[in-house]
Amino acid sequence: MLRLSGWLLVAGWVTLRLRRAGRGDLAIVHLAVLALIGADPANTLYLNTFYAEAGALFGLYVALAGALVAAVAGGRSAWVVTAIGGFLLGGSKYQHFALPCLLALALVSAGDRRLRRAALALALGGLAGGALQVQQAGRATPLTEAIVATNRVNFVLTTLLPSVADPAATVAALGLPDRCAALSGKSIYVLAEPVETLCPGLRELPALRAWTALAVEPMAWLRAAGRAPPYMPWIPDYLGLVEGGDHLRLPAGYVTLDRWLDRQPYALLGLFVLPWLILAGTWLLRSPPLARAYAAVFAAGSAAVAGIALLGDGYVELGKHAHLAFSLALAAAAVPAGGLLAQWQAASDGRAAAGAQK
C-alpha cells in the first residue's frame, strides 16, 4: 500500500502540472499509460514482494514523468523529481546502473533546450544511483561473489555456447576444458555435480572475455535473440500469483497484456520492433521534439534492458530480468496516440475559435 500510495502521489502531481500547462492531451496519455501498462498485473504483482523490480519500475516512471513535466512546464520541482527518479532507477539493480544516463542521451537526441535540462537532471540523479550500485558491487562478500559467478556460468552455458557456431572451439578459446562444451544449454541449477567439477575455471571466467566470445560472431547474437521468446514470459510462471494457490495463473477476469505476449515469438518480435518503427516515423514526419525524444527513450531503453539482461544471467529468469523492457516497448504506443490526440484538440480549438468569430 505504501508503494501504491507513492505511485498515486506522483501521478496526481504529474497530471496537475500538465493540466496547468495547458497540455490536457499529454495528461490523458500519461494516465492511459499508467492504467494500461503501469497497472498491468505483470507490474503490480511485484508491489507486494521483496524483488527489486517494483523499485526499478517506480524509478523509471518517476524519471520519465518528471522529465515530461520539466520539458512542458519547467520548474525546479520537476527537475528535482526527475533527478530523484534517476537515482531510484540507477540504484534499484546493478544491471540498471547506467540506464538513466542512456535515457538522458535519448532525451537530448531531439535537440530541444528544455529536454536538455531535463536530461541533465536525469543523468545527475542516475550517476548518484549508479555510483551507489558500483560501490555496493565492489564489496567483496561471499554473496556478491556467488551471484556474479552464477550469472557468468548461466550466460556461458545457456546463451553463449548454444548460440555460437562451434561450441568446442569457443570453449578452447576461453581456455576451458574440452568437456565444458557438453554442458551447452544447461543452467547451473540443473547440473548434476558442482560446476567446479564439471567445468573447472568457468566460475572464475571474466565477464568481458565471455561477452567478447559472443560479440565476435554477429550471427550468434541473432541466434541468441531468436531463442529468447520461450524464456521471456512477462509474468514469470514460477512466481505465485494467487493467494492460497500453488503457482496458479491469473484468473480469467484479470486483464493483462501478458496473455498476448507470453512466449509468442511473433508478438514479442513485434513488440520490440514497435518502438523503432515509431521512432523512425517521428523523424520522417518531422514530429515535435518531445515526440522524437520519447520515441528514442522507449526504443533505446527497451533494447538496452533486454540486451543487458541477456548478458547478465543468460536465459535464466530472462523475463524477470528484462522486466522494464516490456513496459518501455509498450509505452512507445503513447507517442502516436498523443500525436493524434493533440491534432484532435487543435482541430477542436480551431472550430471553437471559428464559431466564436461568427
Fold topology:
Blueprint (H helix, E strand, L loop, with lengths): L1 H19 L3 H15 L2 H4 L8 H20 L3 H15 L8 H10 L4 H25 L4 H22 L3 H7 L21 H4 L8 H9 L2 H9 L31 H4 L3 H20 L4 H25 L4 H4 L1 H9 L2 H24 L1
Q: Encode the helix/strand succession as letters.
A: HHHHHHHHHHHHHHHHHH
Instruction: Estimate the helix proportion, in percent.
Output: 55-70%
Which spans of ≥5 residues are poorly predicted at pLDDT below 50?
none
Radius of gyration: 22 Å
- Beta-strand segment tally: 0
**End-to-end distance, in Å?**
53 Å
Beta-strand content? under 5%
Describe the protein.
The chain is built from 18 helices and no strands. The model has no long low-confidence stretch (mean pLDDT 91). Helix 4 runs antiparallel to helix 7 (113-137). It folds into 2 domains: 2-139 and 254-348, no CATH class; 142-217, no CATH class. It is mainly alpha-helical and 358 residues long. It has helices at 2-20, 24-38, 41-44, 53-72, 76-90, 99-108, 113-137, 142-163, 167-173, 195-198, 207-215, 218-226, 258-261, 265-284, 289-313, 318-321, 323-331, 334-357.
Features:
358 residues; mainly alpha; 2 domains
Compose a concise summary of this entry:
This protein is an all-alpha fold. Helices cover 68% and strands 0% of the residues.
